[in-house]
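Why do we bother with holo predictions? Because pocket geometry can differ from the apo form. Keep that in mind while you read this record for guanosine-5'-monophosphate.
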Amino acid sequence: MHPNIKKVLVSEEAIQTRCAELGKQITEDYRNLGKVPVVVSVLKGSVPFLVNLIKYIDLDIEFDFMAVSSYEGTESIGDVKIIMDLNRSIKGDHILMVEDIVDTGRTLKEVTKLMFNKGAESVKIVSLLDKPSRRVIDITADYVGFTIPNEFVVGFGLDFDEKYRNLPYVGVLKDECYQ
Ligand code: 5GP
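The structure, written out:
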């Protein structure tokens, strides 16, 4: 374990198992609807989750990336900025947004709105983590990997000042790391 990690909340094994379950569920759901989604990954935090999840989606998907920003340090600044937009038209497409975590819900609300403004036919959300106790906007992801308590987490894509994204698990930093 990384020396700055106080505790592991979600293990590497648990993430892999859950990715397989979610991928299977997503495959079944879209197959039943007769649709193939365009998978949109929100940079940078969702990349490790995207990479693992898509191995288990047995459909001819395409994927693209966008980047937004809402956090500085450990506090949400409540202002979602589009830093990098999609590279393609999504008019008439069925979008599956991949997120690292739903916290206040502001990012998801804004990004979902943006997808519809760009002409998406449907938008679904899959998030590795969900922190429902922090919700400000009434929004729920269609697929959630793990519901976690109100703690600031790092690892598996999630950062503290751009570090710890490469940890293969989700954990909580030692208090001294914030000083
Ligand atoms: P929301 O708009 O739902 O408040 O926040 C979404 C974004 O805030 C996430 O995509 C993530 O980048 C960041 N975020 C929220 N909670 C945490 C957390 O516990 N740890 C880290 N590292 N980032 C978080």
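Residues 12-33 form the longest helix (22 residues).
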